């Protein structure tokens, strides 16, 4: 069941409708080309040698036997990469990393810092030969003790991953040798005074495990150098321009020497923002003079690409007797993996944002561990912070004997509420989302069986923006070619085309969107942060306005009048005072070359005002007390989309994020061995939710228009993953009477908790 709650009276002709996506036929028929589909003449096969140790000093690498092996054309190590300065490089949403660390993550330098860390690579004319050659590379390791969680990594006697790393902080209390990469603190009001005023205080510790984004398509990259020294890379990526620029730095060449061609992408969720294989393929291609393709196996993906953080958290919330939340304090230590950069900032910025809390103190620690370097995962950091807060809010409601939703409504953030990070809320939809939950039949339905419980959690994601570019070319038949730089993951082609079509007053079927390479379009920031519909949609909006201005001038020329006497209305040009002078878009298009040449609209933007999204998850579960197995019976997700440009794809994003959040709550985790090895490096053992595990996820789209966008858009891709973990934990608590403040809530954990 799906529904829309529209709180804006603006109606559009194209925006808000559900057209068929332009790339749909290619996707369902198998014609769409993905990264691994590239087959260049004479291409070689690259394979990567990965460390068998989670923490080891690399004394030496002898590649001579591999290089002498028949069929091997080149071997690469970190020595083939350019010396890089210790400068910061943006690698994606919520993530900035030292360029040296980024280079070392591509091919290990003096240390291997996780099992699966790339150490060397081989190019051969046959993939089996390349595999054999890897076994001939002799790496002399000094094995060191690993540390795989933040608590152990922060202990005084922990093995140190980076001997020269110091804690990035304004606080000077940290030791010189440490695994704490950074420390941050957000303070609002007076936390001690806040708790002094509280009548009821609840607090808990929380521990969560590392989880992976679980995209179905593994990474793949093909590189080929031309005779004039230019490099072309085809890959699976959410961040074409960012990867182009970082590959250039790692190779020591200008970014203008690289053309990156983003292929269709089989999922990413933030996990395909960084460069892993691209520099390796480029080095091997340069050495051999042939195109080289390197692809990951599923085990490579799980062992060597960025999951999100495991965590240790402590949180405390205080409220007055009448249900006013007066103070919140939290300590968060997030695993960054091998190099700094956990999403601790996303957690601290978002965890208390659904509420108006006058006194807040949040202390966040970014901690390196012997696991793969973390990457963004859908609202990076926010689900973990929300998990802690929403469990405690439910516990407060229980102690105060207030309905859990009523307590949340009493404390709901509104326009003008100050967040923990200091931001004053603009127009937001927190109250509207909670009211939608209250009015929904699911919230008021009775549970019918034993050991059943209903859980609620609300969440927030701030959404992002960035530079973006769109170019629209008017064809003589009245159609428009739309060129854009945002990789399409969730149907953004049609969403951007809808916004252009709305501006021009033409059918969206007459717009042909195409995602192009980095040579063909202006700089466009990454497909992440729930920002594409907002920023690239705005670029398309500006391109449409540019076309309208030019068409007004062309019509004025034809009618021998001044442009100010012509207006553009409903896809047609008309004279303001002569009703007989009217010409539709399609009628004018064939005459453009005769009135001055082609008409090309351009939109180059870097817009602010992305507008955050509030969301809520309502879930019913049944728990088998003997086995601890959790069955999800019903789930409804609510989200403020601002304006749902294509409601079907908004619903899909809401459902997808919710499913991932439920999997994070119940099944998913990295199971680590004593030596720091990942023990479940396949999708048989790394257990993600399937359609057989869940009911249909019902959706309710709330539309509180974002005044920071021409069509009122808010990002929708990430917020829906934020509250499910807290909602599931609360539902299990109501079903069993036990509260387990850790994830995942798998059968073993629950059976043990229930049995006492």
Question: What do these coordinates show?
Answer:
This protein has 756 residues and is α+β, with helices and mostly antiparallel strands. It folds into 3 domains: 1-32 and 426-462 and 611-756, 2-Layer Sandwich (Aldehyde Oxidoreductase, domain 4); 35-146 and 213-304, Aldehyde Oxidoreductase, domain 3 (Alpha-Beta Complex), CATH 3.90.1170.50; 468-605, Aldehyde oxidase/xanthine dehydrogenase, molybdopterin binding domain (Aldehyde Oxidoreductase, domain 4), CATH 3.30.365. It contains 20 helices and 29 strands. The strands form 7 sheets. Strands 4-8-2-15-12-13-14 form a 7-stranded mixed beta sheet. Strands 1-29-28-27-19 form a 5-stranded mixed beta sheet, sandwiched between helices. The chain has a 5-stranded mixed beta sheet with strand order 10-18-17-16-11, with helices on both faces.
CATH architecture field of the largest domain: 2-Layer Sandwich
Q: What is the overall number of helices?
A: 20
Strand neighbour order, sheet with most strands:
4-8-2-15-12-13-14
Kindly report the average pLDDT value. 96
Secondary structural class: alpha+beta
CATH topology of the largest domain: Aldehyde Oxidoreductase, domain 4
The CATH class of the largest domain, by name, is Alpha Beta
For the secondary structure, the number of strands is 29
Name the overall outline: globular
Task: Provide the domain count.
Answer: 3
What summary fits the major beta sheet? 7 strands, mixed
- CATH homologous superfamily annotation of the largest domain: Aldehyde oxidase/xanthine dehydrogenase, molybdopterin binding domain
Stretches with pLDDT under 50, minimum 5 residues: none
Percent of residues in helical segments?
Answer: 25-40%
> Between the first and last Cα atoms, what is the distance in angstroms?
39 Å
Could you tell me the radius of gyration in angstroms? 27 Å
How much beta, percentage-wise? 25-35%
